[in-house]
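To whoever picks this up:

The nightly regression suite flagged N-acetylmuramoyl-L-alanine amidase as changed. Nothing in the input moved, so I suspect the structure step. Input below, exactly as stored in the fixture:
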Amino acid sequence: MKKQDAVNWAVKQIGKSIDADGSHGAQCMDEIIAFCKEHFNWHPTGDAIDLSTQDLPDGFQRIKNTDEFIPQQGDIGIMDSGEYGHTNIIVAANQHYYDSIDQNWYNASDKGSPAAFVQNHDYDEFWGIIRPPYEDAEKGVSTESTKLQVINDNINYTMNKRVGSIDGVVIHNTAGSRTAVQDYNALSNASISRYEAGVAHYYIDRFTIWRAIDTFRIAWHVADTYGNGHYLGYEVNESMSASNKDFMMNEQATFKQAAIDMMYYGIEPNTKTVKLHNQFVATACPHRSMALHVNFDPIKQGAPSKAKQREIQDYFIKEIKKYYNNPTLIIGVPDNIPNTVTTPTNVEMKAPVQSKGKKAGNKWRRNEHGILWKSEKATFTASTDIYTRYYGPWTGWPVAGQLHFGQSINYDEVYDYDGYIWLAWTVSSGDRVYMPIGYSNGQGQRVGAAWGDFS
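Regenerated output under the current build:
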């Protein structure tokens, strides 16, 4: 028997209740008794904490936790919390957290509860492990990580707790070059005005998962009140810089995290529960994913049709289901990596606002990218700090600067895109910059108060 065989056995127990000793229902120890009896003809005795002291069969190892120790897949974890302790089968680990399959962890009681995938156990009450004699088991203290780095450190602003249900997930593309760690460094202590411009629950690449906002709180990630309140947001990092292979690995890490959260909340992946940013408001997000998987780039080609939206939605659902059905799958190199260029040039990034489109009424025009715009000259004075953007009216574009409270600008164009009303003007360097000044309904009308005064 190999380590992966143990993981596969544990996965099959998810949702089931094993009562190996016929006492107190599906306790954590019952999972370990059943596993060891079936595969090694050994019946552990006592409570979970007793695994740290009882005699072991030949070939088994018992390893106490140390600072450098990282459990292997298939190790039997031992926690010394409480009177009885706790035990589980470990499926992935790094130096700070481990994932496992546990009975009687969620809704724990003296009557037990079914086996479940548990993400991000810490080592605070971790005694160590028992390692069965797998064919590929390491001897002694192991130090190899099998789990992505996890940063569980929220942004410095407390979002409101969600009122009502979580209806699903939204997969975003950052439209930037930063890694998840770089976004953590840049955004974890940002201003409220920066968060108002858009912030998701997660930022993810192939190495790191940053949970920026707890999933029981809302996040301002789709510029839509219902979407912000009822959907979890996942940003796939490096959508403007990573190679196709690396970005697709970033996507896979994101799909896995979305699947784990959907499992936890009891949400099945389908077209109602896996949504796109551009299904809430007119926006180019998720531009890179669409370019890679459905041969359509919203930055270059304009607003996607409903058929293209459904096509990328179906791809996301298929990939999320893979991890939903087996959350222990390790992120690997994807198949069928396109060899085409899927990131826009500077000229292509500027093109959407240069397309003037057709008349849409009330002096507005709408172009093929779904951007509403009109000429208008006036002065705007900010009542809060507001970030400005290069290239166009999209919160995904690079930050150009910031208009501070009390500062004024003279603008000459107004845009409605990405869930916001935007003003545009040319700065002294000759660059064109774009600034959101309030939320919109997508029809050229502001929703709520502006973030400043007009004169």
